[in-house]
From TrEMBL, chain A:
Record text on subunit structure and interactions: The 20S proteasome core is composed of 28 subunits that are arranged in four stacked rings, resulting in a barrel-shaped structure. The two end rings are each formed by seven alpha subunits, and the two central rings are each formed by seven beta subunits.
Species for this entry: Carpinus fangiana
Residue stretches making up the Proteasome alpha-type subunits domain: 4-26
CDD domains linked: proteasome_alpha_type_7
Compartmental location: Cytoplasm; Nucleus
Record-linked PROSITE patterns: PROTEASOME_ALPHA_1, PROTEASOME_ALPHA_2
Protein name (Swiss-Prot/TrEMBL): Proteasome subunit alpha type
SMART domains: Proteasome_A_N (SM00948)
TrEMBL record, chain B:
Organism: Carpinus fangiana
Keyword Hydrolase: yes
Sequence similarity: Belongs to the peptidase T1B family.
Coiled-coil regions, chain positions: none
Name of this chain's protein: Proteasome subunit beta
Lineage start: Eukaryota, Viridiplantae, Streptophyta, Embryophyta, Tracheophyta
CDD domains xref list: proteasome_beta_type_5
Family annotation (Pfam families): Proteasome (PF00227)
Gene Ontology MF: a single term: threonine-type endopeptidase activity
Length: 249, 272
C-alpha cells in the first residue's frame, strides 16, 4: 500500500487514490462546519478555535463571500482554501463579464469542484485539503441552495450538512432534527447542530446568514450568545416537561 | 469562462528556433509582426476587399408582442448580382435569430459557432442562455479577431426569461442593446420607413407589414439590395417565419399600375 501514495496519478490495485483519501483525513481534522438551508435563508456555521490573546480576531474570517449572493465555509487546510476562494471569486466576476449575469450557486460549485478534481489528475501536485460548503441564492429564481464539495472533486446539493471535526455526530443530529424552517428557526437549527460538538458560547462559534435581500450577514457575538441562551432555555424547559409529569404520578 | 483568444494564438513556432540562440542573453521584448508587405495598410485593404459585400438590408425591432426580424436576399459583387436568393436570417436555435450583413461566410460560420456555444451552455447549466449572454459570446469572439478582416454586421434577436432581446454586434467588436436596428447599405432607406411607422403597440400583422414595407423601400432605392423580403417573428415560443415576398411583386402591390385613358388612339392609316 505504501507504494501507491507517492504520485497521486497512480491508482492502487484495489481502485483507491490514496492522496485523495489522505486529503479527506486532513478535512476530518479541520474545524467543524455546518450548513442548513431554510425556505428563505441559508445559514453557515463554523467552529472558532479559541484565539490567542494577542491575535486580532477580526483578521480570521472563516465564512467568506464569493459574490454578493454566494458564500463559502470550509473545513481543512486554510491556506488551500485561500487559493480556491481567490480563483472562485475571479470566476464569479469573469462569468458576470462574459454573460452579463451573476453565477448560479450550482455553476460556481461545479467550477470549484472541477478545480479540486483537476488537482487529483495532474502530475506533481497534491489535492486541495478541504471540503467546502457553498451557500447562496440563484439570481432571478430566488431559490436558496446549499452545496458541498470535497477533495475528490465531487459535489452534491444538501438540505443540511456538516463537515470537518465530528461531522458525523452533527450530521446525525441534523438527520434526526431537520425540518423545513425559515428565518431565525434555521439559524437556531444550525447553532444547535454545532453545539453538539463545540463548547457552548458565542466566542466559539461563527455564524453567517445568507438572505436574498441582504446578502451575507455575519452574526455578532452578542447575537449568538442570545440565541444560545434561548436554545439552553428551550432545552431546560423540555427536560423539565419530561421530568414533570413523571413526578406527579 | 476566459475571453476567446484562440484567434490570437501567435505563430510561436516560427520563432522557437531563434529563441534558443538568445538563451543566456536577456532577450529584448518583441512582438510578432504580421507577415505582409504593407504593414500600415494591410488591415484597411482586408476590409476594403469585403466592403462591397455589406450590400444588403436587414432590420429588427422590438415591439409589444416580441421581436420582428426582416431582411432582403440579394448578394452582389460590385455591380454583378451574384444571387437573389440568399438566406440572410440565420436560425441559431429555436428561439434565437441572427441576421447576416457583410461577409456571408463569416456570418454563417460564426453564427453556427454561436449556436454550438449556446447549446453547450444549455447542457452545462440546464437552462437556456440569455440573448445578452449569446450576443456577448459572439462579440467577444469577433473582438479577438479585430483587424484581421472579418466583416460581420449582425443583429441577435431572441426571447429569453427577461422577455424579448435585441443586440447589434459587429466585427469591430461593437455591441449595442437596442429596440430598433437596421444594418447594411440599404439601412438608411429602411430606417426612414421604419422610424416613421414604428409604434410599440402594434399587432403582429401590423409589425410584419411595417418590416416588409421597410425592406421593400430599401430594395427599391438601393441597388445592392433586392430579391425576396423575408419576415420572421420571435415570440415567447420561439421564432416563426411569417412571409417571404418577392420585392418586385411587392412593388406592384404597393403601387399598382392603373391603366390610363388614352387621349388619341393610334389608328392604322390606310395607303400612303
Amino acid at each position: 500500500m505504501a507504494r501507491y501514495d507517492r504520485a497521486i496519478t497512480v491508482f492502487s490495485p484495489d481502485g483507491h487514490l490514496f492522496q485523495v483519501e489522505y486529503a479527506l483525513e486532513a478535512v476530518r481534522k479541520g474545524n467543524a462546519a455546518v450548513g442548513v438551508r431554510g425556505s428563505d435563508v441559508v445559514v453557515l456555521g463554523v467552529e472558532k478555535k479559541s484565539t490567542p490573546k494577542l491575535q486580532d480576531s477580526r483578521s480570521v474570517k472563516k465564512i467568506v463571500s464569493l459574490d454578493d449572493h454566494v458564500a463559502l465555509a470550509c473545513a481543512g487546510l486554510k491556506a488551500d482554501a485561500r487559493v480556491l476562494i481567490n480563483r472562485a471569486r475571479i470566476e464569479c466576476q469573469s462569468h458576470r463579464l462574459t454573460v452579463e449575469d451573476p453565477v448560479t450557486v450550482e455553476y460556481i460549485t461545479r467550477y470549484i469542484a472541477g478545480m479540486q478534481q483537476k488537482y487529483t489528475q495532474s502530475g506533481g501536485v497534491r489535492p486541495f485539503g478541504l471540503s467546502t460548503l457553498i451557500a447562496g441564492f440563484d439570481p432571478y429564481t430566488c431559490v436558496p441552495s446549499l452545496y458541498q464539495t470535497d477533495p475528490s472533486g465531487t459535489f452534491q446539493a444538501w438540505k443540511a450538512n456538516a463537515t470537518g471535526r465530528n461531522s458525523n455526530s452533527m450530521r446525525e443530529f441534523l438527520e434526526k432534527n431537520y425540518k423545513e424552517t425559515s428565518g431565525q428557526e434555521t439559524v437556531k437549527l444550525a447553532i444547535r447542530a454545532l453545539l453538539e460538538v463545540v463548547e457552548s458560547g458565542g466566542k466559539n462559534i461563527e455564524i453567517a446568514v445568507m438572505t436574498k435581500e441582504h446578502g451575507l450577514r455575519q452574526l455578532e457575538e452578542a447575537e449568538i450568545d442570545a440565541i444560545v441562551a434561548d436554545i439552553d432555555a428551550e432545552k431546560a424547559a423540555a427536560e423539565a416537561a419530561k421530568k414533570g409529569p413523571a413526578r406527579e404520578t | 469562462m476566459k475571453l476567446d483568444t484562440s484567434g490570437l494564438e501567435s505563430t510561436a513556432l516560427f520563432f522557437g528556433l531563434s529563441n534558443e540562440l538568445l538563451d543566456g542573453f536577456s532577450a529584448a521584448p518583441f512582438f510578432e509582426v504580421p507577415n505582409t508587405t504593407n504593414f500600415d495598410g494591410f488591415q484597411k485593404e482586408a476590409i476594403q476587399m469585403v466592403k462591397p459585400a455589406k450590400g444588403t438590408t436587414t432590420l429588427a425591432f422590438i415591439f409589444k408582442e416580441g421581436v420582428m426580424v426582416a431582411a432582403d436576399s440579394r448578394a452582389s459583387m460590385g455591380g454583378y448580382i451574384s444571387s437573389q436568393s440568399v438566406k440572410k436570417i440565420i436560425e441559431i436555435n429555436p428561439y434565437m435569430l441572427g441576421t447576416m450583413a457583410g461577409g456571408a461566410a463569416d456570418c454563417q460560420f460564426w453564427h453556427r459557432n454561436l449556436g454550438i456555444k449556446c447549446r453547450l451552455h444549455e447542457l452545462a447549466n440546464k437552462r437556456r442562455i440569455s440573448v445578452t449572454g449569446a450576443s456577448k459570446l459572439l462579440a467577444n469572439i469577433l473582438y479577438s479577431y479585430r483587424g484581421m478582416g472579418l466583416s460581420v454586421g449582425t443583429m441577435i434577436a431572441g426571447w429569453d426569461e427577461t422577455g424579448p432581446g435585441l443586440y447589434y454586434v459587429d466585427s469591430e467588436g461593437g455591441r449595442l442593446k437596442g429596440t430598433r436596428f437596421s444594418v447594411g447599405s440599404g439601412s438608411p432607406y429602411a430606417y426612414g420607413v421604419l422610424d416613421n411607422g414604428y409604434r410599440y403597440d402594434m399587432s403582429i400583422e401590423e409589425a410584419a407589414e411595417l418590416a416588409r414595407r421597410s425592406i421593400y423601400h430599401a430594395t427599391f432605392r438601393d441597388g445592392a439590395s433586392g430579391g425576396v423580403a423575408s419576415v420572421y417573428y420571435v415570440g415567447p415560443d420561439g421564432w416563426k417565419k411569417l412571409s417571404g415576398d418577392d420585392v418586385g411583386e411587392l412593388h406592384y402591390k404597393y403601387y399598382p399600375v392603373t391603366p390610363s385613358t388614352v387621349e388619341q388612339e393610334m389608328v392604322e392609316v390606310a395607303g400612303a
